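Re: that backbone. Tokens:
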């Protein structure tokens, strides 16, 4: 299914965006960490390979990291030291099977160390989203993507979406007690129709105008996302 084949009432994943104070430095970090190539786009950077849905934008912003991120990336890694060598630091090394780390600007990420023969070229493992009600949030997005919600067999406090159209990894929702307080530094873009997201309960933050060709919305938890009109 191509982006022009998105059914009415549904969305299709497009790409990811990461905010950074120093976009050049962060683009080098994320390109190396994810197995992508970096291309400058003015003050921003575009990270790409031969799969369009692997695209990640690193966008320059003035605001530094001030609070724990509501959205973070989980990575396949050959070794934690590889990411440290790129500028990351370890926050918690005892959370098996992952290591909680911070990127060069302090944003959280989780590294899952793999055997060399199991390390993929593209190394984004999954996208994690904090929520005061992970089940509710997952069901909201599942409805727009047209997929089901998956649950762990042990009844853990998280759930996930798999098989999302265009999305090359799983989207995980996990319960947290703290509310969202600032704009997310990581967000996702989708193909679709803004009116479909609004009808499902999204909020319009900024409509397309002379400066941008997409609509900026927020889901019921306040997580920002951008809709690129398939028409």
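Recovered sequence:
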């Amino acid at each position: 299914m191509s982006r022009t084949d998105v059914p009415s009432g549904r969305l299709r994943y497009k790409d990811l965006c990461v905010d950074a104070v120093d976009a050049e430095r962060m683009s080098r970090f994320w390109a190396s960490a994810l197995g992508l190539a970096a291309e400058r786009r003015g003050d921003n950077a575009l990270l790409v390979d031969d799969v369009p849905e692997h695209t990640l934008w690193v966008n320059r912003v003035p605001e530094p990291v001030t609070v724990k991120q509501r959205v973070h990336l989980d990575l396949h890694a050959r070794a934690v030291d590889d990411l440290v060598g790129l500028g990351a630091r370890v926050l918690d090394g005892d959370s098996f099977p992952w290591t909680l780390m911070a990127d060069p600007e302090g944003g959280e990420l989780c590294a899952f160390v793999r055997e060399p023969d199991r390390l993929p070229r593209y190394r984004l493992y999954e996208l994690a989203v904090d929520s005061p009600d992970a089940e509710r949030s997952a069901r909201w997005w599942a409805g727009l993507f047209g997929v089901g919600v998956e649950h762990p067999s042990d009844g853990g406090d998280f759930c996930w979406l798999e098989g999302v159209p265009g999305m090359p990894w799983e989207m995980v929702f996990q319960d947290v007690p703290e509310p969202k307080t600032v704009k997310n530094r990581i967000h996702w873009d989708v193909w679709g129709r803004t009116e479909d997201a609004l009808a499902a309960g999204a909020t319009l933050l900024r409509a397309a105008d002379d400066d941008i060709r997409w609509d900026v919305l927020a889901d019921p938890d306040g997580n920002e996302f951008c809709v690129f009109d398939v028409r």
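The mean pLDDT is 96. The radius of gyration is 17 Å.
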